Amino acid sequence: MKLGYSMFSFSENIDLKDIFSNVSLMKYDGVEPVLSEEGYLNPSMREGEVLEIKKMANANGLEIPSVGVWSLWDNNPVSNDLSIRKKAVDIIERQLEFASILGADTILVIPGYTHCSFAKNPEKVAYNVAYDRAYELFFKLEKVAREYKVSIGIENVWNKFLLSPLEIRKFLDDINSEYVGSYFDVGNIMYIGDPSDYIEILGRHIKKIHISDYRVEQSGLGAFVDIFAGDVDFFEVIKSLKKIGYDDYLMLEMLPNYKRLPELSIYSNKPAMDRLKYMYETL
């Protein structure tokens, strides 16, 4: 079991050198960079520029096990606009390429949304149409992922799509590839279900785990809190992870992060992350 810190916790223009140094100081094992249109990792970069990020991480004793993406909220993979869907494919293919360069074995993607209130230009997509488009998309992208030997992990992330664990499992079973699976966020699922149920049902399909916590009596993004300050039953989560044989990264995501000095969450949440690892080793 390894512990990581996701750059989803910060803006797309953060100083990676400073953040990587802080993450290393707190003895995390890895970091998760995030692709965006104009940030520190963006589609216009050349291989040498991407490699500099890997060198920076390695110089701090950090691995890069996964790569996230911001851009798919504004380029919905199941959009009603064909040009947007094509742009989403380009983004994911670039993400796979960069992950391969960085030495990551997984990318995190949004499988698409049927409705979203926080995209710049949100649209509504019929659920059944979204499902068919998503299946076609990831069935094709599986071949690209296989070429790069990088898995695609679709995340459960407030997208009003692929809501049930049974539905997600069927979706992944039908694609039937070791290179298309689930990037499961334990906090994201709290508004509609129990993370332990999802973990045990998704089982072998889980590629990576995002760690976040959520208070169910609140609502929206403001309900996400420090680890063990919310309602995620982490004891049951760890038991379920052990039950399915998961022994990969626990990647901490603080989103939204602290309004001031967000890098302090690297320090304040490390004891909680260490406790999760201890629980895994001793339960």
From TrEMBL:
Keyword check for Cell division: no
Name of the molecule in the record: Sugar phosphate isomerase/epimerase
Keyword Transferase attributed: no
Keyword terms, alphabetized: Isomerase
Residue span, Xylose isomerase-like TIM barrel domain: 24-255
Organism domain of life: Bacteria
GO molecular function: isomerase activity
PANTHER family in the cross-refs: HYDROXYPYRUVATE ISOMERASE, INOSOSE DEHYDRATASE
Gene3D superfamilies: Divalent-metal-dependent TIM barrel enzymes
